[in-house]
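Sequence, please.
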């Protein structure tokens, strides 16, 4: 089973942008790409076309039964951005699936409130898909 969808993560805070989230769901794994977007919700499917997959990209495996450590590695990153690594680890632990996570947030990288809103939006979207 392989499916790809693009979701719009709205923001109710004017200082936090809306996000585009592309989810490719494979057997026991997710490939996620997320980026702030200025597109409207009905246009969000076009967002991945103007984004960058390789700006900050990591892979994490869920812990094995009885273990607490999540194995993860950075695939691509820059010296000022390794956000995807820790977020991919948390998502893999939470959903028990391998997670490939690419985050294209550029100028928002140093703003924790933006990262928190993004992670919360990703969590809510995946929870909705799994139920």
């Amino acid at each position: 089973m392989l499916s790809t969808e693009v979701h719009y993560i709205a923001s109710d805070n004017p200082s936090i942008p809306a996000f585009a989230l592309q989810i490719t769901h494979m057997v026991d794994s997710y490939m996620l790409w997320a980026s702030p977007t200025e597109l409207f919700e009905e246009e969000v499917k076009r967002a991945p076309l103007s984004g960058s997959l390789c700006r900050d990209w990591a892979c994490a495996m869920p812990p094995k039964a009885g273990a607490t450590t999540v194995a993860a590695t950075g695939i691509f990153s820059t010296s000022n951005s390794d956000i995807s690594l820790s977020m991919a680890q948390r998502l893999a632990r939470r959903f028990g699936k391998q997670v490939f996570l690419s985050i294209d947030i550029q100028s928002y990288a140093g703003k924790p409130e933006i990262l928190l809103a993004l992670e919360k939006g990703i969590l809510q979207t995946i929870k909705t898909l799994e139920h």
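The beta strands are 3-9, 18-26, 29-37, 57-61, 71-76, 98-103.
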